[in-house]
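Objective 1.3, modelling of assemblies. Example input:
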Amino acid sequence: MSKMDFHAKLAGNIFKIDNDDTEKAPAMERGFNPYVTNEGTVAAVAGKDFCKVVGDTRCSLGYTILSRDLSKITKLTDKVVVATAGMRADAIALHKVLLTRIKTYKAKFHKYPDIDVIARMLGNTLYGRRFFPYYTFNLLCGINSEGEGAIYGYDAVGSYDRVNCGAMGSGSELIVPILDNQIKDHNVLEPEAPSDTEIVENVLRDSMHAAAERDIYTGDGLEMFTIDKDGIRFEKEPLRRD
Amino acid sequence: MLDPTPKTAKDHPEISGGSTIGIKYDKGVLLAADTHLMYAGCYWYKDAQRIHKVADNCVIASSGDYADLQMLLKKLKDKNDYDIIAEDGHQHYEPKDYCKWLANVHFNKRMRVDPYYNSHIVAGVDSKSGDKFLGTVDVHGNNFEGNYVLTGIANYFCNAILDGNVTDDLTLEGARELMTKCFTVLYYKDKSQGDKIQYVTIDTDSNVNFEDPVTLESKWDYHFTKHLTNDHTRDVRFKN
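Predicted structure (tokens):
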């Protein structure tokens, strides 16, 4: 038997086994689905020396609203918050893990971790559950050790990148184009981070109102976190409730 | 030798209860649930208690699998007993902590893809501050608080009745009226809902009052329940 034939036979066997498996597989998957999606939207913009984060407060399940007042944003340190869309139960668990690990870091090193440190830690925490992922979509927002606004965007299994603005969750498709147009300086030779807090705030607020207008999973309340050298400020205002 | 069959988990509730509702009123919290347990489409037990006292100042109402609920109640009782026996200056759980604890147990079980099929309403009064607490836990471990909370199919029927009507100055009578309205709607529209409802109140002095179940009033002799639409156009039919 030539080497070629051997490979062909081996390949044939492999495919045969594969085919057997598919034939035996049940037509429909039954049983418990450990995932649900509670949707919601978060968005953030990093400025020159500040960072603004918004999130809605609706928690839905299918076409039902479970709660109209459930925060998506958790304060991690005096300079960092994490905003999470996706499954609430996973998000609650994830935020708890993050807070615990930051507390451990503080006990070990007698200082709070910088945002780039937390960014890697969050990436590793998410990837640690690569084969049973946290069904969460995170934006880690704050100011870095140089005092610049910084945002890290993640997927569910922990690949991440530093960005200057971002949106996550069910309304992200509606918000990303607005941020691209208003904040991200595409086609500009030397892009500059926005320095006017009021403009950024208005862009974010308008984006969320736009998302609440068209996305059924976004609405009820708007939380806005501002992170700068003075710490974290928090405001809350209503969004449409239908 | 290893067991070649894969590990299996229960993939649906067996004997289960229907909706439960909790409402905050000005001086406490009102909980209600019916007393029916279902096995598939059949009323299996007709006078089961679905609201349980887990501490002096905390009550839970549960829908979903009754066996899982009994297991959780056993766990809670064991936990309380050990806390008391230890006598180590440990602070006993407040309603908020029970809610979180249940959520953690549920999240842990869902991570094993072998969940407790329950949704709970946890209600109580903080023993130190005297604050009312009303929260809910679901099968995945999601938990949150609210002025009113619902489990089961009540989420679809009763949000519209309660939203906006549950205010800070709602009296016990008002809350009871709303509750009766919710369960009447559920009784008319949800086949798994029974008409024997048990009310439980916890007031801010931590008085827990389990009332005897009451039967809902309902009216079925409407014209449309006796006569079909376009009945007269059907030429072949049985007459009574």
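The first helix of chain A runs from residue 3 to 24.
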